[in-house]
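Continuing from yesterday's entry. The apo prediction looked reasonable, so today I'm repeating it with copper (II) ion included to see how the binding region is handled. Same sequence as before; SMILES copied from the compound registry.
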Amino acid sequence: MNRSAPVQVLGLAAVLVACASPPSTPPVTPVAISNFTFSPPDVTIKTGATVTWTNDDAATHTVTSDTAEGQDAFDSGPLAKGASYSRTFARTGDFTYHCNIHPQMTATVHVRSP
Ligand SMILES: [Cu+2]
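Holo prediction written out below.
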């Protein structure tokens, strides 16, 4: 008995769904410290995003959360001219901060859900 089974070669087309590729690095929002001011004084970011402050002044400044304790507290320590400090914000909220050396310097990071 000669049984010839047709061999069907099914070409499986590998369909690659190209998702919109997210940026390889998380978004970073810059804030300049310039002329004794955080600039811009208000930034709005999404959770998981990072703010990077850079001191453009000759004077030393800090980036210090008004909240002194807990997981929402942060403090850059003294930032000399040209120094930077970064913080990633994992929780939503309005995070006010100031400069420890010049308390009149105040600003806010607004963190929203994506
Ligand atoms: Cu300062």
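Comparison notes:
- The mean pLDDT is 86.
- The two ends are 67 Å apart (CA to CA).
Will overlay with the apo model tomorrow.
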